[in-house]
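Quick start: what a row looks like.
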Amino acid sequence: MKHQMRSMIGKMKIKIPAYTVCIIGIILLQSTVLDYIRIYNVKPNLIIVFTVSVAFLNGSIEGAIVGFFAGLAQDIVTGKLIGFYALLGLYLGLAVGSINKRLYRDNMLVVIFFTFISTIVYESAVYFLWSFRSIISGQINLLYPLKEVILPEVVYNSAISVFVYILVMKLSRAFEETDRK
């Protein structure tokens, strides 16, 4: 029991700084460089892709924690409502992580599929919650954001998910290797 507890604490000493650096790097990329790499005036959401990758590889608890803190960082950078993206990230990490035990983790198509579905759900929730009053009053066309923003971002995130997943997989293997030592 003591060995397991020591092992768990040892893992966390490595994972927390590593995930913190990843989240800060993603937020910096998201708010600077990716503004210049827009396709159809849409940029990828690396927060979603990173959260999906971590949750898929490491489970719901780790996915929820990473999703929460990545979302909180996004809340701080966007300066809108603190906690909005944090809760979305938390729920995204929980949902994807709860499914990971049943699927083969090395299959890239599964990761692309989950990124695809997660982006649709996440961005639809963002749009719906930010535009709730306008939607209720009938002032907004619901097909416009789906066609012009959400679907291009879904394709973009799905393509980028391959590279992010490979990086997260290497990071997870490095954590496991460190744990073995």
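That is the whole record. The chain has a mean pLDDT of 82. The radius of gyration is 17 Å.
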